[in-house]
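Page 47, continued from p. 46.
Same chain as before, 93 aa.
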Amino acid sequence: MSDDVLKRYRKSIDNIDGALVCLLAERFKITQAVGRHKAEAGLPAADPGREEAQIARLRALAQEAELDPEFSEKFLRFIIDEVIRHHEAAKRR
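Result:
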């Protein structure tokens, strides 16, 4: 038994997931460059002011897009924590 509607939805989801992975890869390439720059310049790995501003900005965007702002914040915090981990590793090299 085949459900063509479900298959189309899943294909769209798969395409979106692929795009998200590519976007995250590009984002991490840039944040790794930021981490190297911070390490060379002796700057701290974390920037709490920038993080809070980004979270507030993305929560507002999420709300406008009818996405749960709590979810968007959790997602961004996960990314930020990973970026900071990379920046701290760059400082140790």
